[in-house]
Amino acid sequence: MFAFIKSMMWFIKKNWYFYLAIVIVGISISLANLLPGTITASFTEALTNNTLTRDFIIYNILLAYLLIMILIYVVSTTKRVLQNRLKVRLYYALQVRYMENILVQDASFFEHFQAGDLLTRALGDVKSVNFSGSTRLLNIFLEFVTIVVTFIAMMLISPSLTLFSVIPLPIIFFFNFYLKKKVKRNWREVREEASKMGNVVLESITNVRTIRAFSKEEENYQKNLRYSDKVYKIERRNLKLNVVFQPVFNSVTAVATIIAYGVGSYYMLSRGMDVDAFVQFTIYLGMFASPLTNIGNLLNNFYQSLISADRINEVYNAKSSVLDSKDAKDISHVEEIEFRNFSFKYEDDDFYVLKNINLTIKKGQTIGIVGRTGSGKSTLVRQLVRQLPICKGELFVNGKFIEDFNQESIRSMVSYVPQEHVLFSRSVYQNVALGKADETNDDEIRHAIELADFAKDISALPYGLDTIVGEYGVTLSGGQKQRLAIARAFLKNSDVLILDDSLSAVDGTTEANIIKSLKEYRKNKTNIIVAHRLSAVMSADHIIVLDDGIIIEEGTHAELMALKGWYYHQYLSQQMDEKEVEHE
Ligand code: ATP
Ligand code: MG
Asked: Residue 577: which domain range?
């Protein structure tokens, strides 16, 4: 519990006055709750002494009771309002913190944590922690206060009767201890399975087209069912635990009551204990038992949220492998990029994907990167947007280590069109506008769309620029998606433009148009084009051919053709393919 409180300190510190107010109000409730017992006692006393009068009933019993009830109502409502506010506040803070942590992560983080898993944690686990961090934690404390307060009140009536009555209580603590372990283990299983289920559900939804195309609905449904079934079974085991333990708490309190009645009757008959004192005592004993049961339930849920807290911390502790150093500087422009003896391997692999790369890219140059699939082209360009850590060798920007600049400013210098399109479920206009961090206008957007040779498609879209792209761009063709992404990059108009296989789904003419606008519009800027079709890089100032992570050939188109190596043969075979297409 203390570890949990410690992990919540960042929030408690900021909102301590909330916690303090709730504690004060909560203690007042415990104290106010003792008052009705005193009224019943004085009523019993008057009854046994035959001093009951009309005025006594009206003022000392009814009116007093009414006032006490109003008081209890006011403080209880105040407590509930405060607690709800605190809960909402904490929920918001937890969500923001969670999102902030996710947004700074690098690519390897997302390979480790799948989207469905992260979503499950963001919803279920954050909620569980939220409940515990706000209401549960305080309620456990306040129930404890109630126990102490009523215990003292009982002690004041009869110390020995009190001690006899609480004899069975240690059993509760013993069970609690046992329960804690079981609940925690079960809850971890529940959450882990829920995460797996989240992944499968998300996968099924996002890949629904493929699933249908391959008639895998039934198989997929069964897979979903299996996970749901598992979650159901573990949850049921959890419920069973609760069902078994709830009666334990109840029985213990029942035993305590029996003892109190037995011993109390004996005290009244042979030791002259007052009836009114005994009545008051039994009322307090009843009030003493309910927090015990409540604490049992609260602790059960609290243990679950300890696991949830661990799961959230796993996300927080997964430090990005690309981190800014303390004195990282902003970069204002990109003059030159240089890979020097640069090698890279992915964290989980034991082989290098890039080997001893030496490449200098100067401002105003257009660089072509070609090579077989899996040769390392994407890996190379992803280095420039700091998606991957530096491994071996150096990467310089403007003659300084790229690590010396802060990542965000590096990324702001680069318009990167990744191989997989990233489209949002918004209009075409808004999707393009994402390219620019600050305000943009219609003219800029239209210009970017023209440069990307996308303008000709806009009129064919049902609502033109306002057409909603649909989730993951489902309503656009492959080539349209690519050009939308390119338009976004043109709009950003940064020092470096990277097109990673972004022209693969467009026809030859469209490709030529885009290359043409690239040359005119980005004349003095750096362009990096990764492509399979060599026509896309033919006019580049420098072309490198990657094979298995090594630069095997480099030069201009003419130089590479003269080499008669991979590039030359690839070019010829692509030309032949094109001729065949023309003949058809
Ligand atoms: P393509 O032309 O198909 O896009 P590419 O040249 O861009 O291929 P990369 O994506 O850079 O190739 O991949 C190079 C190698 O690195 C491949 O062998 C691939 O399996 C491996 N690889 C790529 N991404 C990862 C990753 N996240 N973790 C581990 N290995 C990876
Ligand atoms: Mg690639």
From this structure: 330-412+541-584
AA letter at 443 = D
How far, in Å, from the CA of 326 to the mean position of ligand 2? 32
Q: Name the pTM for this structure.
A: 0.73
Pocket test of ligand 1: the residue of 108, 355, 379, 566 to mutate, having most ligand atoms within 8 Å of its CB, is 379
Residue nearest to atom 18 of ligand 1 (CA): 374
Q: How many CB atoms lie within 10 A of CB 273?
A: 19
CB atoms within 10 A of CB 523: 10
77 & 203 share domain: yes
Cα of 376 vs centre of ligand 1, distance in Å, is 6
Instruction: Measure 316 CA to ligand 2 centroid, in angstroms.
Output: 30
In this structure, the answer to whether residues 310 and 370 fall within a common structural domain is: no
Q: Which residue has the tokens 């005025």?
A: 55
What are the pLDDT digits (tens) for 199-233?
888 888 888 888 888 888 888 888 888 888 988 89
Q: How far is CA 374 from CA 312, 379, 544, in A?
A: 35, 9, 15
Read off the pLDDT band of 249 (50, 70, 90).
confident
Question: For the chain, what's the residue count?
Answer: 584
User: What's the CA-to-centroid distance between 352 and ligand 1, angstroms?
Assistant: 11
Neighbours of ion ligand 2 (CB under 5 A): 378, 419
Do strands 336-344 and 392-397 pair parallel, antiparallel, or not at all (unpaired)? antiparallel
The ligand whose atoms approach the alpha carbon of 352 most closely is 1
The span from the CA of 303 to the CA of 208, in Å, is: 38
Of the residues 262, 283, 316, the one at which a domain ends: 316
